[in-house]
Amino acid sequence: MEGVDHLAFERNKAQFDVDEMKIVWAGSREDFELSDRISRLVASDPVFRKDDRAALGRKELFKNTLRKAAHAWKRVIELRLSGEFSALEPEAYKLRAFVDQPAFTDLHWGMFVPAIQGQGTDEQQQKWLPLAYRMQIIGCYAQTELGHGSNVQGLETTATFDPKTDEFVIHSPTLTSSKWWPGGLGKVSTHAVVYARLIIDGQDYGVHGFIVQLRSLDDHLPLPGITIGDIGMKFGNAAYNTMDNGVLTFDHVRIPRNQMLMRVSQVTREGKYVHSNVPRQLVYGTMVYVRQKIVADASVALSRAVCIATRYSAVRRQFGSHNGGLETQVIDYKTQQSRLFPLLASAYAFRFVGEWLLWLYTDVTERLKAKDFSTLPEAHACTAGLKSLTTTATADGIEECRKLCGGHGYLCSSGLPELFAVYVPACTYEGDNIVLLLQVARHLVKTVSQLSTGNKPVGTTAYMARLEQLLQYHSDVKKAEDWLKPNVVLEAFEARAARMCVACAQNLSKFSNPEEGFQELAADLVEAAVAHCQLIVVSNVYALSLLHKHLGDFISTGCIDPKQGSLANEQLRNLYSQVRPNAVALVDAYNYTDHYLGSILGRYDGNVYPKLYEEAWKDPLNDSIVPDGFKEYIQPLLKQQLRNARL
Amino acid sequence: MEGVDHLAFERNKAQFDVDEMKIVWAGSREDFELSDRISRLVASDPVFRKDDRAALGRKELFKNTLRKAAHAWKRVIELRLSGEFSALEPEAYKLRAFVDQPAFTDLHWGMFVPAIQGQGTDEQQQKWLPLAYRMQIIGCYAQTELGHGSNVQGLETTATFDPKTDEFVIHSPTLTSSKWWPGGLGKVSTHAVVYARLIIDGQDYGVHGFIVQLRSLDDHLPLPGITIGDIGMKFGNAAYNTMDNGVLTFDHVRIPRNQMLMRVSQVTREGKYVHSNVPRQLVYGTMVYVRQKIVADASVALSRAVCIATRYSAVRRQFGSHNGGLETQVIDYKTQQSRLFPLLASAYAFRFVGEWLLWLYTDVTERLKAKDFSTLPEAHACTAGLKSLTTTATADGIEECRKLCGGHGYLCSSGLPELFAVYVPACTYEGDNIVLLLQVARHLVKTVSQLSTGNKPVGTTAYMARLEQLLQYHSDVKKAEDWLKPNVVLEAFEARAARMCVACAQNLSKFSNPEEGFQELAADLVEAAVAHCQLIVVSNVYALSLLHKHLGDFISTGCIDPKQGSLANEQLRNLYSQVRPNAVALVDAYNYTDHYLGSILGRYDGNVYPKLYEEAWKDPLNDSIVPDGFKEYIQPLLKQQLRNARL
C-alpha cells in the first residue's frame, strides 16, 4: 500500500523528540534546513536517478556521470541566480554530496582548488582560481604513482629546471613513476597539480607541486608529450567506476617556471632554491582539515548503513511464530542487537568526534597564524589516529550491516554493496590506516619517554600526565550500573591505553637500535595506538561494546578483573534494551531521503517486499522473456543427443 | 621482461619441497595431476577468458556466461569421448570450478540433481536423472522465498492435493511467498525442485519438494500460470551477476502427483500421507555433505586471496630506502606479517579440516546405513559450526588480503574485489552464520547439562568428558617456546571453550523459562560456540593468533594469566619469522594458474607493474581518447561564460 507507514508502530515507541535530534545530528538548525532543502531538490530531479546504474556497462555509466555532473553544475548556478555566484558555497558542496555519485568534480573542488589556495602565491591564486571557480579549466590532483602511494617522499616523477628557457621539464623516468589513481585524470581534467621531484642543477630538492596543463582546451586531446588513460574497473558495480581514475606519463613536458606552486618555497630566475617566510607547518594544518572531513564522512557513511539495517531489522520477521501469529521482528533478537546497536552508537559517536575535530582545526589554524606550533604534533597524531579508527570501523560496520540484512543485503537494491565498495578506499587514501597508527604509536612512545623530562603532554594525550596514578589504577566497579558512570568508563580506557603504551616503551628500550625495535614490535604498537584512539571516542554503548571486544587488553593490563568485565557485559545488555524502542527514531534523525539512502530495505515507509519485487523487473535481463543467447547457447544443449551417456 | 621470474629470489629461500607440498594440498598425487591438467586446459582456452568481464553491462555479461557454460559442456563431453560419458565425473566438476564463473550449471549439477538423487524414489530417479545427466532438462532448486530464508519451516508456497485429478496445485498465496534467489531460475532453467507446504484436505503437512516444469522445452517461454524473472544486480562487478538468480510465482499450477519427491514420505492416490521406512535423518547426511563442500571451498577462496597478497607483498616495496637503495619489501614489515601469516595458516588449517569433514561424512553415512543415529547430533552441530567459522573467517580474510595490497587491491585487475563479492554469500546461504552458531550453542549447553546423567559426549565434544579437570586447569606455560607444544595450545582452547559453555549453562539456569534465557543470552552463547569451533581447527600459528585476538576469553576464564598471554604473543612473532622465508613457496604449493587466480598482483612471475600498466588500456573507456559525452557535458562547462561570478 502506497502512503502507509509500515514503521509507524516503531516510531510511536520513541522516547525522545526526533525533530530535536535532527538538529543535533545536523549541527545546527541552519545546517539542518540547508541539508533538508538540497537533499529534497536532488531527490526530486529525474536526472539524479541512481537505481539504474548498477547494471550499466562502464561506458554508459561514465557518460551518465558526465551528464549528472553537468546538470549538478547547472543547478548550482541556478540556486545562486539572484545573488553572486560561488561554487564553494555550502549549497554547492551539499548538492554534490547528495547527488552521491563520485565524479571528477570531487577532485576539482576538493583537491585541485584547495591545493592552489594552500600552496599557490597570491599571484598564482589570482591567475588560476578564477578559471577554476568558473570551471573554465578542470583540474585534478596528480600525486600517487604506480609504484608509490604511502611513501610520498619516494615519488619518482621529475621536474628539472632549465635555466636557459626558464622552464621546468616534467618527466616520467620509469614505468613505476607513471601517475596512477588520480580521480578525474583519466578522461576529463584539462589541468593537474602534479607532484614531482624538483631538480636544479643536478640536485634533488624533494617533492613539490606544479600546475600542468594536460589537455587542449579546444579539442580535449592530450598535449604533446603527455599520455593519459583510465586505469580500469574498480571494486563494486557503480561505486568508483563512475570516476575516471587515471594513468599519466610525461615525456619531457615543458611548463613555465611560474607554474611551480611557490607559496612555501621558490625557484628564482637564476635557479636558486629559496624558502619564503611562510611556515612549512601550514601543510599540517591542511592535513588536519582533510582528515576532519574524512572523519565527518565516516559518520555519514556508517549512519546510512545503520539506517538501512535498523529499519529493515524492524520490518523483517523470521522464526518465533506461535500458533500462526506474526514471526519475531529480527531487531528483537539479542544477537542482532549486539551487532547493530554498537554500530548505531558508533555512528553518533563519530558524528560528535567530527564536530570536535572541526573545533581542533580552527584552534590549530589560529595558533599557526600566531606562530604557535606547540600543539601541532599532538593534533597531527590525533587526527591521524581518528582517521584510521573511524574509517576502519566504518568499512567493517557497513559490511556488518549488509550481513545483518540477511540474503537481501547482497542485492544492489539494498544499497549496501555500493555503499561498501564506494567507502572502502577511505581506509587506504590520505594515509594507509596501519601506517597512520604507527605514526600515532611513535607520538605516544615519545610522549611517554618525555614525561621524565617534565614535558607536559597536551590535547588528547593529557591523561598521560597522570601516568603514575593510571599505573596504580584498578577499577572499583562493583555492580553493572557502575559502568554507566562516564568517568568509570573513561578511566578504564585511559589506564588500558597508558599501560599498553608503557609496555611498548619498556619493550622498545630493550633494543639497542630503537628503529629496529620499532619494526619488531610494530604489531603491539599498533594495538597501543588503537587503545589510545578508542579512548578519544569513548561514549556509553560504544565504549562498553569495545571493552567487551578488547576484554583481553583490559584484564591483562590489570585495569579491571574478569568479574568487572562480565558486569560490563551485563550492563551492555541493559543498554541494548534501552536503545531498542528508540532504534528506528534514532536513524530517522539522520533525515536521509529515500533517494540518498538508495535502498529498498531502508525505505522510510518500511514497504520493503512489494518494492523489492517491483524493482526486480527493471533489470535489463528482464527486457525480454527469453534471454539473449538462448538460441546459440541453451537450445543446443537441450536438443543435443548424447551417445555413450552413462547414467 | 617476459619470461623472467621476479620472485625467484623468494622461491630460493624456501626450506621445504614445494612439489611435495602441492601433493599434500591437493590431497593425493592423483588429485594433483587432475587439477593440474584441467586448470591448464581451462587457462589455455580463449573462450574462458575472464579479464574483460568486469566492465561489461549486465546483458553482455550474462550472454558471455551462457557461452562459457555451453563451451564447458562441450569440453566435458570431449574429455570423455573415448569412454563412457558422465557429467558427474571429477573432470567435469573440476572443469566447472576452474572456469570460475558462477552459472546455472552450478545449481543444475550441485542442487537439482542431488535433490532428486537424495529425495526421489527409485522410479523418480529413473525417470528424471537421465534427462538431467544429459542436460535435456536444466533444473534449479527453488526453496528460498522473498519473505523466508533461514526459517525453511516458514515457507508459504502451497502444494494442495486435488484427489479429483490426482494432481498437486502449486500456488503462491502471498507476495512474500514468491520464490526469490534460486540461481539459474531467472532465465535458464526448464525445471525446478520447488519446496512448498503440502496441503491435503485442508491439513498442512509441512514443507516438501516437488519437481515442476517451468518453461516450454520448445520455445523456452514460461508455462501457463508461471511468472519468472531475474531479481536484478548483486554485489560486485561480475561476481554473481553472471547468474540469473530468479523470482518465481505460481498461479494454481498443476503437476501430477508423482512429481512430489517421495523417498521419505508419500501421498497415495487416495490422498493419504504416509512415511516410508527410509529414515528422515538421511536429510542430515546430505547437510553434512553440503557443509563439508562449503568448508573445502572456504580453504580454496581464502588460499587464492592469500596467494595474491603474499606474492604482491613480496613484490611491493615501500619506505625504508637508505642512500638510494631498494626500499623494503612490504612482506618484511611485522604489521604485514601479523595480518597476513595468520590467514596463510588459516587457509592450510581449513584445507585439513575440509579433508577431515570428508571422513566425517563417510563415517556418518555408514552409520546411517546401519541405522546408528548416535553421532548425528554432534556431527550436525560440528559441521554447522565449522561452516560458520570458516566462511566468516574467509570472507573477512579476503577483504583483509585486499587491504594488504594497498590501493591497487581496489582495482578489479587485482582479482580481490571479485573474489570477495563472489564469496560473501557463503556467510548467508546454507544457514546464516549466526543462526548456525546458536544451533551449536544449543548442542553444547545440552551436552554439558547431560554430563551429570552419564551421557558421554562424542566427537568434537569429547573433551567435555574431562570437564572437572578443565575447570581446574591453569596453563603451566613458563616460556614462549612452551606455546609450541600442540597439547599446551589445545588444552588452553579446551579449557576456555568448556568454561565459556559452563558459564552460559549456569546463566541459563537462572531463567525460569529456558527459551527466554536462550534469547536473552544469545550473544554470549554465540561466543561460546565460536570458542568451541575454533578448538576444532587449532593449529600452531592459527591458534596463537586466535589466542591473541581473543585474549580476554582466555584470561577472564582463568585459563592463562597475562604473562602467559604475552609469551604467546612473543612466540607468535618468532613463528612469523619462521614463516617469512617460506611464504611465497607456501602459496606456490596451491598450484593455481594465473588464469584461475585472475590477478595481476598475484602473478606467478611477480611482473606486476608492467602488466598493470598494460591492462589499464583495455578498459572500454580507453577505446577513444576523447570520452563519449565530451561534446554534450564537458565542453559546455569549459566554454561557459558566467556572469556575477564571485571570486
CATH-derived architecture of the domain at 283-454 and 481-583 in chain A:
Up-down Bundle
Compute the CA-based radius of gyration of chain A: 28 Å
Q: Give the largest interface pair and sizes.
A: A-B, 149 and 148 residues
Number of helices of chain A: 23
Which strand-content bin applies to the residues of chain A? 5-15%
Biggest β-sheet strands, sense, barrel of chain A: 6 strands, mixed
Mean pLDDT of chain A: 92
Oligomeric status: homodimer
CATH topology of the domain at 283-454 and 481-583 in chain A: Butyryl-CoA Dehydrogenase, subunit A, domain 3
CATH class of the domain at 283-454 and 481-583 in chain A, named: Mainly Alpha
How would you explain this protein's 3D organization?
2 copies of one chain form a homodimer. Helix content of chain A is 51%, strand content 9%. The first copy, chain A, is α+β, with helices and mostly antiparallel strands and 647 residues long. Among the domains of chain A are: 139-279, Beta Barrel (Butyryl-CoA Dehydrogenase, subunit A, domain 2); 283-454 and 481-583, Butyryl-CoA Dehydrogenase, subunit A, domain 3 (Up-down Bundle), CATH 1.20.140. In chain A, the strands form 3 sheets. In chain A, strands 1, 2, 3, 5, 6 and 9 form a 6-stranded mixed β-sheet that branches. In chain A, a hairpin with a 4-residue loop joins strand 2 (158-162) and strand 3. At the A-B interface, helix 4, helix 7, helix 9, helix 11 and helix 12 of A face helix 4, helix 7, helix 9, helix 11 and helix 12 of B.
